[in-house]
Write a structure and sequence with these properties.
The protein has four helices and eleven strands. The protein is of the alpha+beta class and about 170 residues long. Strands 8-1-2-11-10-9 form a six-stranded mixed beta sheet. Strands 3-6-7-5-4 form a five-stranded mixed beta sheet.
Amino acid sequence: MNEGVLNDSSPRAFCAFRADARLYGIDVACLREISANTTITPVPRAPPVIRGLANLRSRIFLILDLRALLGLPPAPCTADSRLIILKPTVAEDMGLLADRGGDILTALPDRIASVDAALPMSDAPSADQARSLVVGMCKLENELMMIIDAVRLADTVARATTNTEVIR
C-alpha cells in the first residue's frame, strides 16, 4: 500500500470476507464479482494453494484456497463460502475461496494503516507468505480487517505454481 493511497482523503471500499474467523478485505477496484456458487472441480496434482476450477456463466476460473495462502488448515465449502473473483487486470480468470463474507465495507483513510513484515500471524510454514499478502489494517468498529493486496496475491500464486514440483 503506497503512501499516496494512505494520504488520500477519499473513502475506500473493500470486499470483506473471513478465513478461520479472521476478517480480511480486498479493494473492490480489484474485484469482478462475488459468487455464492462454490462448485469447484479439483485439479489433480495441483499445489495446495489451488483449490480447483469453477465454471461461472460458461467461463472457467482458477480458484485459489485463501486458507492455504494464509497458512491455515483446509476447510470444506459450506453454504456460507464465497468465491471472490478478481478483475482480469489483476489476474486473468482467477478467484479466491473464502470461508464466508462478501460484504462491501467503506472505510476512511484515517482508519487504515500500512503494515510491515513484522505483522504477527501464525507459526505456519507459509506465515511469511501470508505476511507478504497483508499490506494494511483497517480499524472497524469492533475488529480489525487485514487488507490483502490482490496483485501480490496473483504474483505469489504465479510463483508458487511455477516453483512447485508435481508429486507423482
